[in-house]
Task: structure prediction
Amino acid sequence: MKKLMIICGLLLGAATFAQAQLKEKAENKVKDLKDESPEAKVKELDKELKLRKDQKIKLVKIFSDYDKTQKEIMEKAKTEDIVIIARKRIKNRDDLDTKINSVLDKNQRVAYLLMLGKQSEEMKKKWNEHIH
Result:
């Protein structure tokens, strides 16, 4: 009987620990999403691309427009087909990349493409870790 109580206590402790870990992960994701303002996105790009002041101003506007369009698309998601929503989001993302590239100079474009490739690899890695 004593062993059974100890085992139950250990299981309860492990479950509590796992719950706390999941809650902490979720809180960190929310924190990350909160700092996705257009200014924060431009600041991240600036670290890699060494943007000029005029480029930063243009990019803040581009990201603001992108976020507004994404929000509008997602609000319609309640009533539209998921495939249509996905296509609209992909087109909006493609438009964003086109607009960003129009602001960047040649060297910055190359660095931006490399940065996107690196991000894509990181996302694939996270996805593979998630499904395994």
Observations:
- Residues 74 and 130 are 24 Å apart (CA to CA).
